[in-house]
Write a structure and sequence with these properties.
Length: 239
């Protein structure tokens, strides 16, 4: 799909990968719809990107997700791309995972992307074209102690994406999965539980800039390939 003039909806757009993707897409000529809970951050980003639309949206709220899709259609008449970027980490070993924390992470990392896909698919079907990019995590490449809850949510998202891609074959709509490596964002500061453990585990790691991930998102949109990872070969990836 061509990026220029495409209408791109990005969740988790107030910082990190989402904000970097918004900037990259806008610079490539896209019309961007930015969704997040932090309206102050969204408004600051919109001020950088003339013509961008900001929508306050908690993606775990079905009514707000529906309103997000409606706002995009009302603003631009169509939805060409959805980037499911909103997510949260969880660090705890199996015996210590709080079930409420796991439910919350599954709701945000798995159920919410499904809800946003369901919200945009009617517009994409009417158009006969569309691209959905779901953001997973390089943690799915390993069985690192303490990551079970988070990895389970992201592995499930990967399978959801792959099956959705097959179900939508022939419609002109592609579903792709991007698997970043460790990225220099606010992710660790916003982790739901186990922040200190997560920071210790990643100490000394070389983090990718979010702009690198944003470039990969746009490459997936442009090519429509099923899957891409940014994980170094030393960690089992293709880089």
């Amino acid at each position: 799909m061509q990026i220029d003039n495409a209408v791109i909806v990005i969740t988790g757009a107030s910082s990190g990968i989402g904000a970097a993707t918004a900037r990259a897409a806008w610079a490539a000529g896209a019309r961007v719809v930015l969704a997040a809970r932090r309206t102050d951050r969204l408004q600051a980003l919109v001020a950088e990107l003339p013509g961008a639309v900001a929508v306050r949206c908690d993606v775990t709220d079905a009514a707000q997700v529906a309103a997000l899709a409606q706002a995009a259609v009302e603003a631009f008449g169509r939805i060409d791309v959805l980037v499911n970027n909103a997510g949260q980490g969880l660090q705890a070993e199996i015996e210590e995972i709080a079930l409420d924390d796991l439910r919350a992470v599954l709701e945000l990392n798995l159920v919410a992307p499904l809800a946003t896909m369901q919200a945009v698919l009617p517009a994409m079907r009417r158009q006969g074209a569309g691209s959905i990019v779901n953001i997973s995590s390089g943690t799915t490449f390993a069985d690192v102690p303490g990551t079970a809850g988070y990895v389970a949510s992201k592995i499930a998202l990967e399978r959801l994406s792959a099956i959705a891609r097959n179900e939508l074959e022939g419609t002109g709509i592609t579903v792709s999965t991007l698997i970043p490596f460790a990225t220099d964002t606010e992710f660790l500061s916003a982790i739901r539980a186990g922040r200190a453990d997560a920071e210790a585990m990643t100490a000394g790691a070389v983090f990718d800039p979010p702009e690198r991930v944003a470039e990969a998102v746009l490459e997936l949109v442009a090519t429509g390939v099923a899957r891409m990872d940014l994980v170094p070969a030393a960690y089992g990836g293709s880089r």
